[in-house]
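Hi both,

Apologies for the delay on this - the queue was longer than expected. I finally got the adenosine-5'-triphosphate-bound model through. Below you'll find the protein sequence and the ligand SMILES exactly as submitted, and right after that the structure tokens for the full complex including the ligand.
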Amino acid sequence: MDRSKILFKLVDVSFYYVPERVALNSVSIEVKEGESIGILGPNGSGKSTLLKILDGLLFPQRGKIFFEGKELTEKNFEDPSFNRYFRRKVVLLFQNVDAMLFSPTVRDELAFGLFQIGYSDSEIENKIMECSRKFRIEKLLNRSPFQLSEGEKKKVALASLLIIDPDVILLDEPTNELDPRSVRELLSYIKELRTAGKTIVTATHDLQMVNGFFDRIFVMNEEKKIVKVGDYETIFSDREFLKEVNLI
Ligand SMILES: Nc1ncnc2c1ncn2[C@@H]1O[C@H](COP(=O)(O)OP(=O)(O)OP(=O)(O)O)[C@@H](O)[C@H]1O
């Protein structure tokens, strides 16, 4: 891992789902390899939109986004080798995990990414066993993902992303829907990923997550802008600012 390497660079990025109504407003940021970034902001401030842009699912109408120096455009994703490279490296846990689950069983859901990479059947089985133990979803393997509780779905979705061992993990409200023990386990797992040098970008409202989890925090406001970037102490020492941006 090279902590000085810039992974993502956004230059004056704006995004509109509908004309005239900005959803992400002139965002210029960099994310370095191995960083853990928190995105905080009130409802509708553009956090999910920013994550989808980082994941190459939405493309800005204004400004540019680069990943390892290559611009993320629809055209560049048409190149199968770049597409494969990027999708192997960068994953996004959606806020609404229903959008991510599509296989008949949890086992198939976990196998899908490994199968695409080209692992053998026995390697796939071993990885499924290891991963399902880690996420305590062994008992769900033969169930349909659609018949699970919201928290179970979230664990399955996260496990199916992490099983391919990506380098960059984008998380949209990862602790929502989880019970207290699952939250503790998830947070300790995210810490492990961080220690292992993964780059992690997390949008969250969960103030439990905020202290000690992030190298830097990006604060967004109702104008869909990033209005402050800093470490936990810098951001949370300014109570007036936190009230102003509707975070407390
Ligand atoms: N599919 C869509 N079509 C039109 N507008 C959208 C769509 N998705 C989001 N928006 C709008 O874009 C803006 C940013 O939304 P986004 O979901 O990125 O915010 P967020 O900070 O993730 O919110 P939350 O904390 O509620 O999840 C909001 O004004 C929202 O209404």
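Main takeaway for now: The two ends are 36 Å apart (CA to CA).

I'll put the files on the shared drive as well.

H.
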